[in-house]
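Hi support team,

I submitted a single chain yesterday and got back a structure, but I'm not sure I'm reading the token output correctly. Could someone confirm the output below corresponds to the sequence I sent? I've pasted both exactly as they appear in my results page.

Thanks,
R.
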Amino acid sequence: MAFGLNARQIRMALTSHAPSYLEDNIAVVERDLAAGKVRNLPAYLLAALREDYRPAAARRLPNPTGAPGSGGVGEEASEPAAARLERLRTQFVTEQLQTALERLRPAERAAMERDYIARLERGDGFEARLILGLYRKSGLNSKIVESHFRVFARERLVGAMDEEAFAAYAASNGDDVPVSVTVS
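Hi R., thanks for writing in. Yes, this is the structure output for that exact sequence:
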């Protein structure tokens, strides 16, 4: 329910998919939420469950429920170059953000959290209300709130991607993905 699904949608997901399938797709949704890619959280989660957003390696594992898109024979074993590049970009930005957050003094971190809550309180959409409610319940201990806060912090602390730094990062991580591939 924290993702905005109703009871019927939750029951359907629980009866249609194995727990590992659900957990893996939810992890992708949380990662994409943290990366700022999610505009409508409930719709995005339903699409992830329907279309199977898990990484290729996870899709090869069988889903005991036999649900469509659950993995198995015939699915591509290797990750496409564009997907590897996107994974590497996400990793790069995540590491940049973590470094920036670790450099903040406690007072700066507290001020950023206050600004974040003020932004949520000004928001009038479903997502802002959902996340503010979760924050009031659990603070940043909620995975969804923490992911959302990290998007806010990334906007403030990291900014636009430095393509030269990313190219060096990709090369140093031994990935054979051509950095010139663009991901929209």
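A quick pointer for reading it: Confidence is low (pLDDT under 50) at residues 63-77. Let us know if anything else looks off.

Best,
Support desk
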